[in-house]
Amino acid sequence: MISRVLTIDLSDYTYEIQEREDLVEKWIGGVGAGIQILKERLNPSADPLGQKNVIVFSTGPFTPAYPYASKTVALFKSPLTGELGETHAGGRTAMAIASAGYMSVAIEGKSEKPVYIVIDGDRVHFRDGRSIVGIRDSLILGRILAEIEGGRGIRSIIRAGYAGEKLVRYACLTTETYRHFGRLGLGAVFGSKNLLAVVVIGNKTYPPADQKLYREIYSEIYRIGVESEAMKKYHLLGTAENVLPLNELGGLPVKNLTERRFDCEDISGEKFADENLGRRIACSHCPTACIHIAALREEYEDERYFFKTVMIGYDYELIYALGSMIGVKNRRDLLKLIHRVESFGLDAISTGVCLAWATEAFKRGFVSREDTIVDLEFGNSAPYLKAINWIVEQPNEFYSDLAKGARYAAEKYGGTEFAMTFAGNEMPGYNTGYASYIGLTIGLRHSHLDNGGYSLDQKVSSLSPQETVDRLVKEEMWRQVLSSLVVCFFARNVFRPELVSRAFLPIGFQFTEDELEKIGERIYMEKLKLKKAMGYEPDLSQIPERVFEVETPHGRLEREFFEDALNYYRRTYFLKAD
Question: Per the CB 3.0–4.6 Å rule, which of 313, 337, 408, 560 could disulfide with 322?
Fold first, then answer.
């Protein structure tokens, strides 16, 4: 397979197409290929919001072939952390890029005026976007672009939204309607390049080398996915199923980790399913349909018996970040907060953690009402709805600073000890123990999805610091393989090494299980090298003090354990990444 790479330069509105034979054979595709392209084109010292930052979207060899290979990987330099940014999205984007004829798309430079890009097979069009600047709802922006470009069909529409235009450093990208490139501020990178959106159109097909074997392996993957208990839970309740068990365990972060448990019955996955579930939708060629959409019916102001119904996607991380983390326990209030964040194109996790820090900072006198404009109070959603507006609009210096992330705001106003960020990235919803927090610190995205530390905490009661690090890194190395195939991590128990090895055969490649593991290790070290070049350091300064103050399911966490773990990580992995 020859993998094509499309490179787009916004500075002079040009593009070129390259054929690369090495991207699958050496790096599989996806994140492995994307890291190589990023390294070739990006100076590690580049300003994340400058024109020399580079964005790489990358798909994998399984994208047009198998169920669950529906993710697109995006790589860039993060304006939130100042180092490597990586975020994944489902939907139709991966299939659209592959159908347009590409494994990867790189975007560099900066446009003089607002534009959006249309990738239509071998042609790239640069459309004047000045008429669609300032639209405050990314969903409406998506509909407008779909109408302009001839309807949705086989198209994928990736757009930044108003938060990206305003350079909020945790602005995300929305693709289609309910999928996102969520973490680390890719929306702000779009905004800094005067890039409003990317529309992708394609109809290329990829016949398998061995059709009979392909049908057999496709059927096997499909059958395992449909019959698997692990996949079934994602269809029935989705990740929202985690709310009640984590709360009972004492692992659900509550009110900026000032409390251990929460009255979360009304915002549980079960309650959402009983009262609000409107439909489920799926990413391209996925039989599971894990995307859960809530229907929120609201009466128009001053119009009795006239209603509008808003469809809002929800999952565990949204419920945590805009629910328990800021003390909101009413389902309707939570849905309104989710909808507000979605409309602006903000990362929900970062927004919730920023609001949680701001609430505690206000309560403890680090910031004043003149700063916050309203009285921020855990559990009171009305001020939070206004605060979300102001994070984007930035009416004063405080909200301009909060738009730069919790770490930035805390370093300026005080309260770094309770700004729940890890290497600058706001924490996901797991106060489960050592593995979770160490995993966030050393994970190459500072994400719970890097290495599943939260899961390790719940499966194993006692590991040494060294064992914890080794287990986390080993898992993360294998996930580099899955991210290079762009397989959804929910299906990681479907795509075991043996099946992955066999699944390559009908599309014309041979990789043994051992070869796959070695490639995963190589990709991991390549990413770590790039992170080091951008200034990443794995040390205790990346961990907020509150981690050592709160109870977890493993009790109070000892500082010495973290010191031993991070010292071991530096010796064993970090210092070898040269």
Answer: 337
